Amino acid sequence: MENSNQFSRRNFIKNTTGVAVALSLPTIIPATAFGANDRVRVAVLGVNGRGKNHISGFSSLKNVELACLCDPDNAVLQTRAKEYEAKYGKKIGTEVDLRKVYEDKSIDAVSIATPNHWHALATIWACQAGKDVYVEKPGSHNFAEGRKIIEAATKYNRIVQHGVQLRSSEAMKEAVKHLRDGLIGNVYMARGLVFKWRPDLGNKGTEPVPEGLNYDLWTGPAELKPFSKNYVHYNWHWHWNYGNGDIGNQGIHETDLCMWGLGVDTFPEKITSAGGKFLWDDCQETPEILSSTYIYPKEKKIIEFEVRPWMTNLEDGAGIGNIFYGSEGYMVVKGYDHYETFLGRDRKPGPTRKAGGDHFKNFIDAVVSRDASTLNGPPETLHLSSGLAHLGNIAYRTGRALTFDPKAEKFVNDKEANAMLSRKYRAPYSLPDKV
User: Which domains does the chain have, with CATH numbers?
Assistant: First the structure.
C-alpha cells in the first residue's frame, strides 16, 4: 500500500483549488537544523484543558525541552506552572501573550491547545515566525481557515501536525490497510459516532471579567461579547463564536477516520444536516443532537455522522468511534485504538487489534528530520476533517440540503451558505489575506 500521508497530500492538492500551485517557494526564515543530540524547545499555548495532555506528552520525550507555558488566564497559567515544577522538579517560563512567545527565537515549536477560534491564527502566526506547529483539533474554526493553514505551512516550510492522535495509532493504521486491501470488500459507507454525555449547562449570565484573565486576548479574532462563565473555560465549545459543537469537537477524530478509511481526499458534493436542542433549556447554541449526511456521487461513497448527548444505546459496542460498511462485511472502531471486523452474512469475527501510538513523537521526529512527508496528521488532512465538520454545521444552520463544489471550495449558487465559510475577524487579530 502506498504511504497514506503522501497519498493524501499529493491527491488533495491536485483535486482542490489551484491556490496550492501558486504558493510561494519556501521560506525566508531558515529552518532550524537539529543534530543528533539537539533538543527541540516547545511552548504550549493554552493550558487549561487539553493543554495539560500536551505538557505531559511533550515532557515524556527525551529530545524535547518544554520551554514555556502560555495562557491568557494568568491564574490558570501560574497553577499549571506550579504543578509542572512539583512534578518535574524545575521551574518553567510563563507568558500570557502568545505574541511574546513567537518573538522568542530560542523556541522551535509551539503546541496549540487554545479554544477553536484561535487555532488557525495562532498556527499561521507561528509559521510566519519560523515555528513548527502541533495544533489541536479542529485545526480551523471555519472552513476557509484550513486552506490558509496549508498555504502558510507550505510558504514558510513549516512542520504542522493536526492533533488527531488516532492517525498515529498502530491499530488504526492496520485497520485502514485492511480497508484498502479489501478485507470487507468494496467500502462504500462510513459512519461517525459521537455519543457523549453532555449535561444541562444552565445559563450563568454576564459578570465582570475575573482578575488575571486577559479577556480581550482570550477573545482574539472572535466578536467581543460581555464576559460570561458560559464561555470560559470549557463551554465555549457550544457557542458559535468560539466553538463548533460536538461534530467539531470530539467529532473531528471521527470525521478524520471516515475520510481516511474511505480513501476520499476531497470534499463531498451533497450535504444534509438536521438536529437541534431537545433536552435542555440552557445557554448552548450548537445542536445537542445532530445527524449529517455527506455524499460523494463520483466516488460512490457516503458518510453518515451522528451526535447524541445523553441516554443512548451503543452500536456494536461503539459510542465514540466509527463503523465502515463494505460489500463483504463491516468494521467497528472503538475510540482511537481498537477495531473489530465482522465478515459475511453470518458476521464471522475477523481481524481485530487494540494498539495506540505517540502522535507527539511523530511530530517531533518530523521537526528534527525536516521531513513533512512523515507526518501522520499533515495540514491537508487537517483541512479535510475539520472542513467536513464545518460543512455539516453550515447545512444545519441554513436548514437545507446543500450542493458543494470541491474544486472551487464553494457552495453552488448559495450566497448565504458561502458567507458561512469564513467569519468577520476583529482587529488586530485578523487572518491575513495573504499569508
Answer: 4-166+359-378 (3.40.50.720), 168-201+233-357+390-419 (3.30.360.10)
